[in-house]
Amino acid sequence: MAGYKTLIGPSVVISNLTKTQIATSAKPKQVIGNLQLVHRLLEKHIHQIIDPHFSLVSQVVNFANGGFKHQSAEVRSQSFHVILECYKTLGRDSIKVHLTGLRLA
Prior knowledge:
Helix content is 65%, strand content 0%. The chain has helices at residues 10-17, 28-50, 54-67, 73-90, 92-96. The chain starts with 9 loop residues before the first helix and ends in a 9-residue tail after the last helix. The model has no long low-confidence stretch (mean pLDDT 81).
């Protein structure tokens, strides 16, 4: 049983949740649910994800960037929380590269 822990972990779940971009017409509840799950996984497991899968963190930030273009304020707020979680751990220089195309509020 111990061998299965490495097959299904937070990085696999986050990878599948953030594969596609957030469509501006997507249903807010579904998008918020995905972003909340990613946020909670990052809160608890970001140190497991950073070292071997730095490209995964980049995928998460790009996914959350799509939430800023959504029409729902709740989606934009949850996207902010996901990016903030990455920012707290990685620092400004690591996240700054992915935030270049955002418009001011």
